[in-house]
Amino acid sequence: MKPAQIATALATADTAEPELAADVVRAALARTGADIARGVLLFLSADFSHQAHAAVLAASRAASCLQVTGCTAPGVFTEEDWALDRPAACAMVFGGDCGLAPPPASATPRLSLATPNAAARDWLAGPAPRYGMLSTNAGAHAAGRIWHHGKLAEDDRCEAIIGGARAAIGVSRGMRILDEPRPVSCLGRDLLRVGGHPALNTLLRDLPLETREQEKLPFHLLMAGIIKGNPENAIEEGRYALTPIIAANHEERSVTLALPLDDGDLVFWAMRQALAAENDLRRLTGQLGDELGATPDFGLLFSCLGRGPWFFGGEDRDLIAVKDRFPGMPLIGAYGGGQIAPLRDGNQQIYNAAVLALFAADA
Questions:
Q1: What pLDDT, on a 0 to 100 scale, did the predictor assign at position 182?
Q2: Are residues 139 and 118 in contact, defined by beta-carbon separation less than 8 angstroms?
Q3: pLDDT category, 223, cuts 50, 70, 90?
Q4: Cα–Cα distance measured from residue 92 to residue 41, given in angstroms and rounded to the nearest whole number
Q5: Distance CA 111, CA 94 (A)
Q6: For residue 1, what pLDDT is reported?
Q7: What order of strands is seen across the sheet that includes strand 68-73?
Q8: DSSP per-residue letters across 211-264
Q9: What's the pTM?
Q10: Which of 25, 282, 287, 297 could bond 4 through an S-S bridge, CB–CB 3.0 to 4.6 Å?
Q11: Residues 6+ apart with CB under 8 A from 129
Q12: CA-to-CA distance for 114 and 130, rounded, in angstroms?
C-alpha cells in the first residue's frame, strides 16, 4: 500500500501578508515528499479578510494547484500548534492519491464551509452528511471569507469531498448533563415549570454547589436541552437541541431561554464544563478510530471559538486529546463562530462544540 502523502504547516506573523499563505503551502508540500499537490486546505486568521483574494492566489501558485479550499476564522491550528489573536495561516497539502474533489450525487460526506447567513436550511439539508464550520470575523459575529477552486466563493459557501479516503465523523457537544428530561410548561421563551416544579428551583437544585452559591449565575455556561423525537436514549444518541439560558426571574421562579418552547416539551439542564468537554472529545476520538477500523492517516477538527484555548484555560485540550490518541497524525482545523455537524436528525448549525473527521487512505 502506498503511504499517504499528506502534511501540514502553520505559521504566524506580525502582519497579514499574502506570502504567509504561500509559505505554509510550500512547507507542507515539502513535507509530503510529493512533486505536486492534488489539493490544499488553507485556513487563515480573520486578519486576512481584506487580503483573502491575494493570499489564496499566492497559495495556489505555491502549490501549482487550483484546488485550494478554505476560509478565514478567528483562529487556526494544526497538530503542531494553535494560533489566536495574531495573523496566522495553516495548510494541509494532499500530495498522493488523496485529494479534494467536487461532491458527487451520492451521500459521500461533504466538507462544508459557509458564512452564518449563507448556511441556509435547504443547503444544510442536502443529500449528504455535512461537516465543517461557519466562517466569521475575529469576534465571531460578522461574516468571514470563503474560497474554493483557488478563488473566493461568490455565494459565501463551498463544499468538497476528500477523495481516495474513507471517513469517520462525529460531534462532541462537551456538555455536563445535569438531570433527566422532564416536561415543561412555558409562555414563549419563559419556562414556568419543569417536571411540575418551578423552573428556577429545578435549575438551582441541579447545579453544582459551587455554581449554585455564586452571586450571579454564569448564564454563558448554562443551557437547556430539548429532546427531539422518542425520549428513550435521546441524550445518549445526541437527539437533542441546546439553547442558551439568558435570564432568571427570582420572583416568578421562571427561566428565560433564547428560543421559545411548547408546553409538554421534554427539557433537561446542561452546563458547559472543561473537564466534561475534554473527556467527551477523548471518548469521540476513540470511537471514531474504532469505526474507521484503521489508524487514521489524517484528520480535520472544527472547534468553536468558545471551546478553544480560552475555555480550557490557555491550552487546547481537544487538540491534545487527538494528538495523544494519534501522535504524529497530520491534523488541521480552525476555531469558528459555529460548526456544521451531521446529527441524527440531519445536518445542523451547532455551537460550543467540536466536529472531528478522521480519514484512512484507500488501499
A1: 96
A2: no
A3: very high
A4: 5
A5: 15
A6: 42
A7: 6-12, 88-94, 39-45, 68-73, 146-148, 151-152
A8: HHTSSS--GGGEEEEEE-S--TTTTTTT-EEEEEEEEEETTTTEEEESS---TT
A9: 0.93
A10: 297
A11: 107, 109, 110, 169, 342, 347
A12: 11
Q: pLDDT digits over 17-72, tens only?
A: 999 999 999 999 999 998 889 999 999 999 999 999 999 999 999 999 999 999 99
State the CB neighbour count (10 A cutoff) for residue 14.
7
Report yes or no: 191 and 255 within 8 Å, Cβ to Cβ.
yes
Question: Are the beta carbons of 81 and 53 closer than 8 angstroms?
Answer: no
Tracing cell 451520492 back to the chain, one arrives at 106
pLDDT of amino acid 3: 63
3-state DSSP assignment of residue 8: strand
Which residues are within 8 A (CB) of 232 and not within 5 positions of it... i.e. 6 or more apart?
A: none
- Residues 92/111, Cβ–Cβ less than 8 Å: no
Indicate the pairing of strand 39-45 with strand 68-73: parallel
Sheet of 130-134, strands arranged across: 99-101, 157-163, 110-114, 130-134, 339-343, 346-350
Q: Can you give the pLDDT at residue 56?
A: 98
User: Domain ranges in the chain?
Assistant: 6-173+276-361, 175-272
List pLDDT tens digits, range 191-206. Answer: 999 999 999 999 999 9
